[in-house]
Amino acid sequence: MSQNPPVLRPDLARATVPDGPRRADQPTIGMVSLGCPKALVDSERILTRLRAEGYAISPDYSGADAVIVNTCGFLDSAKAESLDAIGEALSANGRVIVTGCLGAEPDYITGAHPKVLAVTGPHQYEQVLDAVHGAVPPAPDPFVDLLPASSVSLTPRHYSYLKISEGCNHKCKFCIIPDMRGRLASRPAHAVMREAEKLVEAGVRELLVISQDTSAYGVDLKHEEARGHRAHITDLARDLGGLGAWVRLHYVYPYPHVRQLIPLMAEGLVLPYLDIPFQHAHPDTLKRMARPAAAAKTLDEITAWRADCPEITLRSTFIVGYPGETEAEFQTLLDWLDEAQLDRVGAFQYENVAGARANDLPDHVPDEVKQDRFDRFMRKAQAISEAKLVAKLGQRIEVIVDEVDADGATCRTRADAPEIDGNLFIDEGFEGLKPGDIVSVTVDEAGEYDLWGRL
């Protein structure tokens, strides 16, 4: 068991690629998956297609005929990590295909690593497959390979990410995701539902709904209805809630219609959990970010959400040290956090990203000031988190089991998303538990981010 403080960099989610049996002379592809859960879904789709074409999947470089590196381009530090991963794959294997968000800047990649075989952008599945075919021709066994039993998953079997759209229509000055992934492109609701049904049928107990802007889902489709399902986030959430699995909503932009989701949480159709990237609280900072600048109104919304669903958990991420942020603006953010009392909070220090408009803003904050503000912000968030968890002592709550080892069971409450939030640990009487079990526990100990309980 290991404690799980919140991830402070929301762009990092290096995946573990599963290994599997291989036949003699079967072409083998390795995969390194970096970036957010949306990139993780892209990696799963690529690997599923490759396995259907007869390729074996390798979890390491040495056993592979070529390696795919799915990159992140969210921040300059994430770009540097992606370049390091490409270099590592080149050194260990020599035959590397690059895809993902950083692939939208091919000259940047080839300038650092001219020996890569190919570079493709995010969610360009066909181009990735073409590059693999060119490097390592497929050799399928028609009796074994062409009908894989299920999709390749890079998450545990009991939960899965469900991507409902690509791209984003916002123009936040610190972000280049729309430049890399394009404008909002929603999947038809019936296609999302079919995928969700198949996942639940395969044993998935929790669906993590992701996109770049989940609350805008269906806007580009004019919320059309097809095959009995309407492309609107409220309708989709209600439909997903009818499948019997936990449904968790991520990356929900705070539009007014988000309040329509709260009754679904109160009814138990959707987990009472909202992941909303507020980014800041001072109106001037938000304007420089090109974000909605109505933090006071947001506090009213939060109050209304909690009135309608008292058990709701609110998660958010914030940027500290944004260009032009004064001490007074930062203090406003701390005061707002005191009032909002968010349950789960992550933050990262502002970084320039090549191509982002925020780079050209005046009055960039010195690194030492950014670090100081980050530390003060996280101390405040940590204190709020600890107080909220202490208040759960003695409560009986439902948890999902993620892992069981010799020391105990690592679980999550309905208030905790995998990887980014906390855990609940059971260290007695856990022997009969297995991953995916949903059980009721009594909380008997609380820390800064984690809980301990007993069956």
Automatic annotation (TrEMBL):
Residue positions binding [4Fe-4S] cluster 2: C168, C172, C175
Top-level EC class: transferase
The Radical SAM core domain, residue ranges: 154-387
UniProt GO MF annotations: 4 iron, 4 sulfur cluster binding; aspartic acid methylthiotransferase activity; metal ion binding; protein methylthiotransferase activity
CC cofactor: [4Fe-4S] cluster
Keywords for the protein's UniProt record, in alphabetical order: 4Fe-4S, Cytoplasm, Iron, Iron-sulfur, Metal-binding, Ribonucleoprotein, Ribosomal protein, S-adenosyl-L-methionine, Transferase
Classification of source organism: Bacteria, Pseudomonadati, Pseudomonadota, Alphaproteobacteria, Rhodobacterales
Gene Ontology CC entries for this record: cytosol; ribosome
InterPro entries: Elp3/MiaA/NifB-like_rSAM, Methylthiotransferase, Methylthiotransferase_N, Methylthiotransferase_N_sf, NA-bd_OB-fold, Ribosomal_uS12_MeSTrfase_RimO, rSAM, rSAM_horseshoe
Provenance organism: Paracoccus isoporae
Catalytic reaction(s) noted: L-aspartate(89)-[ribosomal protein uS12]-hydrogen + (sulfur carrier)-SH + AH2 + 2 S-adenosyl-L-methionine = 3-methylsulfanyl-L-aspartate(89)-[ribosomal protein uS12]-hydrogen + (sulfur carrier)-H + 5'-deoxyadenosine + L-methionine + A + S-adenosyl-L-homocysteine + 2 H(+)
Protein role: Catalyzes the methylthiolation of an aspartic acid residue of ribosomal protein uS12.
Binding, [4Fe-4S] cluster 1: C36, C72, C101
Ranges for domain TRAM: 390-455
HAMAP family: MTTase_RimO
Domain MTTase N-terminal: residue ranges: 27-137
Cofactor comment: Binds 2 [4Fe-4S] clusters. One cluster is coordinated with 3 cysteines and an exchangeable S-adenosyl-L-methionine.
Transcription regulation listed as a keyword: no
Enzyme nomenclature, EC number: 2.8.4.4
GO biological processes: tRNA modification
Protein name: Ribosomal protein uS12 methylthiotransferase RimO
PROSITE patterns assigned: MTTASE_N (PS51449), RADICAL_SAM (PS51918), TRAM (PS50926)
Family designation: Belongs to the methylthiotransferase family. RimO subfamily.
Region listing for Disordered, in residue ranges: 1-27
Pfam family membership, one: TRAM_2
